[in-house]
Amino acid sequence: MKIAVLVKQVPGSESPLIINSDHKWVDEGAIAYVMNESDNYALEEALQIRETKGEGEVVVVSLGPVRIQKVIREALAKGADRAIHIQMDTVGEVDPLLTASHFVNVLKEENFDLIFSGLQSDDVGMGQTGILIGELMDMATASLAIKTEVEDGYIKVKRELEAGWFQWVKMSLPASISIQSGLNTPRYPSLKGIMGAKKKEIKVVEPNSNKSKQSLEKVYLPQSDKQTVMIEGTVDQMVEKLIDTFRNDIKIF
Description:
By secondary structure, the chain is of the alpha/beta class. It has helices at 37-53, 69-78, 96-107, 129-136, 191-197, 235-250; strands at 2-6, 9-11, 33-35, 57-64, 82-87, 114-118, 140-151, 154-160, 166-172, 175-179, 202-205.
C-alpha cells in the first residue's frame, strides 16, 4: 500500500497577520507557521493504515517555498517514509486548479494507491485540491471523510453530510480522499523520530509553469462598528421594539 499525503504549511492560529502596504498579501516574515490541521489528521490516517496492514509506504508531498520543509520534517518525524517538496514561491494566492496540476505532475509518476489531503486549508479554505486531483488523475474521489476502511483493491469511506447525516461509500483503488479533522488522534513526534527524520529523503522538484488563472485583488481587515440604541417607552413598547429588532435587524427569529 503506497499512500501520498498532501501537507500544507499555514499561519498558526495565534500568529499575527500584518497586511503589507500594497494590500496584496500579508507580511510572511511576521508569521509563525504550522502544519495545516486537517492535513495532520490525513497524515495520521495514512500512518495507521500502514501500521494496520504491516507494510507499505507513506510519502509526504508539499508545495511551497523553502520554509515549508519545517512541516515536512515534522511529518517525517511522525513516521512518514520520505517526502517530495514542490518548491515554488507562493506569495499571494495560487488558484486551486494550478495547485492541483502541480501535484498531479508529481503524483502520476509514483503510482500511489491512495492520495490523502486535508479537507481544506486553515488560511484560504478553498477545499478543492483533493477533488481536483482525483478528477485530473481519473480516479475515485471522496471528500468529508470521517472514517476509512481499506480492503484489497478498494476503500470504504464514511462521509459527513448535512443535518447530522452520514454516508458510506465504497471505491476502487486508486482513490483521492479529502480528510475531515477529528477522525483520529494525531501523534506527536518522538525523539527517535525527530533524529531519524534528518536522514530521510526530501526530493525537491520545481514546477514547469506558474500561470495562475485567478488573481488576488486586495487583502484587508474587515471593518466593524458599534452602535448603541436606547429603547424608550412603556414596557410593552420596549418589548415590541426588541422583538422587531431581533426579527428584522439581527434576524435571530
